[in-house]
Amino acid sequence: MEQEGVENPYKFDSKFSKYKSSQVPGDIRGQWGEARKASRTKGNREINFRLIAIIAVLFFIVWWFFDFDLSLFTRF
After folding, report:
1. Helix and strand totals (H; E) in the chain
2. What is the rounded distance in angstroms from the CA atom of residue 30 to the CA atom of residue 23?
3. How far is it, in rounded angstroms, from Cα 57 to Cα 51?
4. Is the pLDDT of residue 76 over 60?
5. What pTM, to 2 d.p., does this model score?
6. Which has the closest alpha carbon to 66: 54, 74, 58?
């Protein structure tokens, strides 16, 4: 971790480092990345209903495979 005010003597600077984050007019990848970020409508942290449905179906298939008896819950 670099402390403030202390310069790293082993850090080499190249002539391209100042252009690293800039976009040039012919940079299709940078333009495509910006367009993707702008077109996003929702975050990735939402719970996906399709994933829950697939997990539930697989869970019931495993129960059926092991011949799980639901009458265990009605014997009280």
Report:
1. 2, 0
2. 7
3. 10
4. no
5. 0.36
6. 58
